[in-house]
Amino acid sequence: MKREDNKERVIHISALVFDVSRLTSHVSRSARSALARARDSDLLYSFRRSPITVIAALLVVVCVGGALLAPWIAPHDPFDLASLDLLDAFMRPAWLAGGKATYLLGTDNQGRDVLSAIVYGARISLAVGIAAVALAMVLGVTLGLVSGYVGGRLDALIMRIADVQLSFPAILIALLINGIVRVAWPNAMLGNIALLVLIFAIGISGWVQYARTVRGSTLVEKNKEYVQAARVIGRHPAAIMLRHLLPNVMGPVLVIATLHIATAIITEATLSFLGVGMPPTTPSLGTLIRVGNDFLFSGEWWIALFPGIALLTLVLSVNILGDWLRDALNPKLR
Amino acid sequence: MSELLTVSNLKVAFPMRRGTLTALDDISFSIAPGEVLGVVGESGAGKSLTGAAIIGLLEPPGRIAAGQILLEGERIDHLPPEALRRIRGRRIGAIFQDPLTSLNPLYTIGRQITETILAHLPVSPREARDRAISLLTEVGIPAPEARLDHYPHQFSGGMRQRVVIALALCAQPRLVIADEPTTALDVSIQAQIIALLKRLAAEHGVAVMLITHDMGVIAETAHRVAVMYAGRIVEIGQVRDVLQTPRHPYTVGLMRSIPRVGATGRRLAQIDGAMPRLNAIPGGCAFHPRCPQRFERCNRERPQLIATEDRLAACWLYDHAASG
Amino acid sequence: MQPLGEASRPLVALHGVARYFDVSRPWLNRVVERVPRQLLKAVDDVSFEIRCGETLALVGESGCGKSTVARLIVGLYRATRGHIEFNGEKQRPNASIWSAEVQRRMQMIFQDPYASLNPRWRVADIVAEPMRAHRSGARPAQIRDRSAALLTQVGLSADDGRKYPHEFSGGQRQRISIARALSSEPQFLACDEPTSALDVSVQAQILNLMKELQERLGLTYLFISHNLAVVSQVATRVGVMYMGRLVELADATTLFSHPRHPYTRMLLDAIPDLEMSGRPRTPVAGEVANPLDPPPGCAFHPRCPYANARCRIEIPVLKAYDGRTLAACHAVEERRLRG
Q1: What residues make up the domain containing A157?
Q2: Most exposed: A218, A291, B50, C127, by fewest CB within 10 Å?
Q3: Alpha carbon of C178: minimum distance to chain A alpha carbons (Å)
Q4: Domains, chain C, with CATH or none
Q5: Between A8, A228, A239, which is nearest C110 by CB?
Q6: Global pTM?
């Protein structure tokens, strides 16, 4: 009898793998038709009606585009230490007296062009933000699905861990993880993996909100008849979670993720500002602000201000976009 | 005897992004005091909307686009919200389908009833409480003095619906609109509630507009019945006449597709197709694509309610005035 | 237990099946408030058989346990006591209650047409899911073709496979559910109030469709409903349940013409009289008791006009009358009932 059970398990698992590959092709197919449906949908209609959201979306597109195209649009390469000229340090912005046209927003204490540093820094900020959110989302959604569907002791365990983690501020958790890694790894390697450490720390500190939301939605959906129908058909629980429940609980997750990107960018900026994030050799927007902070009162205000404005614009736009998405997807407000 | 409620050429429209949807198209009927008018139809026919329009609870963007509603001779269809609020409860009572959501779970039922009485009638709180107790006795709730202080969740489904009926009647309205009052109840409780409604209507002399999809409930409770289809009334007459000898082909099909006890094994007669969606109502008679007796005129012209023998039916089959 | 003289082999057999739900308050609350554990006996000691090719209907009001019985049979719940056999094969003790082979042969149709289809899946995929789940060795093209054929079989068009469930009406969705249920070529279909959420004219279409499919494909139905008129239209045998127990089981014609149990009589009397014949009816009394705290003895005794002292202490068991009808009632046994 055991052999029969094993055989069934193999069948189930290979079925699951087959399902995943079918899922990806299914997703691309539905994405194409989704585009067609989206054009005519109520979502686009409400989007067009809110001018602030349109502006915010444009700004996000500009920021993301700038970040992606950084090597081509930045006038200088701020990370190439060889090209920096200390004589160019503390240059004022181009429209003020004493400024050079090549350094549009001035230079910092090492002669780095502030504009280029902002473009590259935004790139790092966005990369960390999006990657950390992706990590948190995958971890949180998986744990939430399992917790909600399986229930019982596993659910209690996961939710207690979540409760414990929630009693600490996210920054503190990120600091904690950062600190542990710094102790564990030799200092020389730190510069290279600082990015990964940041992503890991911010991601781990943020999974709880996804897990809780998804668990709540899973608890509701799991009692609906289509899930029961799948169980009667004999689907494996993993298949039910992945193919039936996941598409139906993802709605609120996307909204949380959008808003979380803004928070993640700010968290990264905070950590960098505190000195435990990106090193000054490969600065993010937070690091730039930190660097500029030292010179704020000695008169070189542009080193901190322009990165600050860039950070503000980016985070605000993402937030506004997230707000619109939440309201637009909320059926009760429509 | 003048009619208590007269609805004339009522039209309810929903202006949407893609055009205006006409949900109710030229509805006319009346209810006399003490009479129970059943409004029956399938989902999407517009019967709940009719009730909502009369009581002034149309969900925006829905609005009354044409026609008028007269309650005891006065127009109530375009009153300002404040005036409508005074009418609701005092002159029109409402009973909705789900007793669980009709009552506020946070207040005792005694408080809900006395509050309603005090809001509409010039009586003292003591008197309001006495009235509440006598109402609860009338609707058949045992030990009413004690139960006044109970919360809705402490009542069973059937008892809750009785409380809702008491609530609808407590301000002594002239008209009660009951929207699917028994659908959420078990069949044995349903029978009790139907009997109660009928008795109370007769005793208090209120007119009742009973909205339901269940012909059996109509047969037991109503005096007259209006059959609705796709936002229009297709037949209206005495219950016995319409149910035993339906004239409009839709009513005929409907009565034949209702399963009856004892007809074991035979295939049910069915009406092919489905009720059209609001944005796809056929021209001419709305029922003609599904009608086994349609002819050329049905496609072109929309029939008005035509008097035929003992009732009104919106069907060209009964237009004996025209030739052919 | 089963009336003698029936040649058909039972497809589904229930023996002393019970299902209890633990609805106790959390442990801490119980300790502090000193309340005992609470068990909801949704189904208690139910035994019957369903024969190949027949339609067995289970009727009763809310809370009587008929839906739970259906779910016990298809393996959504595990029985707390007793056992269920399908084609002679018993349920298994491990996680999957039925073997894959048996699971393939039973399907279920649910009450709510709006919740029984996954709103994010296309109809063709919904219908094809049982086929894909059971790895019948068919190629994708074959599965697609069969999915389209099933849709036409239930009265929709093959093109409807590309649409999503929200584009269909309640009746059409129920047809899609039926198509899905048929796709793994089952023998047995448990139908939990399949037409209760549908309009009367749509209900007629769906009932006719189900009957046609049964004749064509040789299906066996378990039909759950609270509507006796619908049941009289479709059932070969009818079982009446009250508060988790089976109180009467008889052929459809016999049950509707000569009901034995007082509850069955009450249910039949409560059906609204469409013919308006003005026939005399027993006034209906009381409401269904709290299932957490059922009356002792026969659960129906507080509402029964024939209850005596024995009914208040002893739970009646199903006994056969006239070799065909089973009824669980002391008054019937003691011949105290008139008619």
Answers
A1: 41-333
A2: A291
A3: 11
A4: 10-278+285-333 (3.40.50.300)
A5: A228
A6: 0.83
